[in-house]
Amino acid sequence: MIDTSLKLYSLLLLAWVSALPGSVFATEYIYRDLIGNTLPPQKCAARAEAEASAADEYNLKKHARIFCESQGYGWHVEQRKSAGKLVCEECGDRDRFHCHMEDVVVQCKRIKPGSVGLIPGRG
Predict the structure, then answer these.
(1) 8 Å CB contact between 67 and 106
(2) End-to-end CA distance of the chain
(3) Largest CB tally within 10 Å, which of 25, 41, 85, 114?
(4) What is the predicted pLDDT for the residue at 76?
(5) What is the per-residue DSSP string for the chain?
(6) What is the pTM assigned to this prediction?
(7) What is the pLDDT of residues 55-100, one digit of tens each?
(8) What are the structural domains, with CATH classification, of the chain?
(9) Are 51 and 61 in contact (CB under 8 A)?
């Protein structure tokens, strides 16, 4: 008796879930592409060292996150589309440089308002 009712309940639940529209479980996102420049370090360094630190993966990830978070609450990095181009400027000392990346392209995403049941009576 219990085993039969459990099977019937499971079958009804499966039929009900499959009858729901597919968008009920899908989260919709808003995407935005941003272009920005990383900041040069405060200290001057030898050219090779300055170029390496400017193109460092950690540095690029950190600035990509900052670019997206500057858009407001809920914005996150989806992907980095381009690392940009390396630009170096000579400091006052000879053979010392400040380097940074220009035109870094980042795609940011945010959950579309109302797509996950945040507004009562909708969706």
Answers:
(1) yes
(2) 38
(3) 41
(4) 95
(5) -HHHHHHHHHHHHHHHHHHS-GGGSPPPEEEEEEEE-PPPPSS-B-HHHHHHHHT-HHHHHHHHHHHHHTT-TT-EEEEEEE--EEEEEE-SSTT-EEEEEESEEEEEEEEPTTTTS-STT--
(6) 0.69
(7) 999 999 999 999 999 999 999 999 999 999 999 999 987 889 999 9
(8) 27-111 (3.30.1490)
(9) no
